[in-house]
Amino acid sequence: MKRATVASQLQRYRRKRNFVKTPEPAGHPGVIRQPPAPLYVIQKHAATRLHYDFRLELGGTLKSWAVPKGPSLDPADKRMAVHVEDHPIDYAGFEGTIPKGQYGAGQVIVWDRGTWEPVGDARAGYRAGKLKFRLHGEKLNGGWTLVRMHGRAGERQEPWLLIKERDDEARPAADYSTVDAEPASVL
Ligand code: MN
Question: Cα-flanking dihedrals φ and ψ of residue 144, to 5°?
């Protein structure tokens, strides 16, 4: 992945933030990581409305979705996931408080992290709006799908759905809520 490509993917992220005031990483394109396995992270973000930022490393940045209710282990319990701007890779380790008046003001904790594994071609799936993958996190594991609602890409805030696959890691929502049972940071 070329630095110029990463820089252009991070334009929206950088435009929204004043890095003199927010402790979040500026994401200056530096050495491009070639990790053994791409990163996965969920950040619990107590902004104006609490939400869970679901991020997958793909193509040199963290592709990001804001999930208002957080993930559910119940395959029938599809969770709205609004596609938001790409974040820099080093955002995956960020915990802290974004100051009042800054974009996304509020507390951020790393709710889960690990690696992810695409099922099939990740870039093609992402472009087509159907990304199937396996998570290897501290809280979330097994098969998941992110699927774009409506047919079309390119909206500023595309609605997607985050859906647990039916496997050994799935659990009925009536029995267990992962976000309620394990509210704390993994760091
Ligand atoms: Mn957020």
Answer: -140, 160
Q: Dmax of the chain from CA atoms? A: 47
Cβ atoms 147, 128 nearer than 8 A: no
User: What is the pLDDT, as a whole number, of residue 118?
Assistant: 96
Pairs from 66-69 (Cβ < 8 Å, separation ≥ 24): 67/42, 67/162, 69/179
**Single pTM value for the model:** 0.90
Residue 31: predicted pLDDT:
54
Half-sphere exposure in the Cβ direction for 77 (13 Å, CA): 16
| CA 155 / ligand 1 centre spacing (Å) | 18
First-last CA distance in the chain: 29
- How remote is the CA of residue 2 from the centroid of ligand 1, in Å? 26
Low-confidence ranges of the chain (pLDDT < 50): none
Nearest to 41 by CA among 177, 161, 135: 135
Cα separation, 79 vs 84, whole angstroms: 15
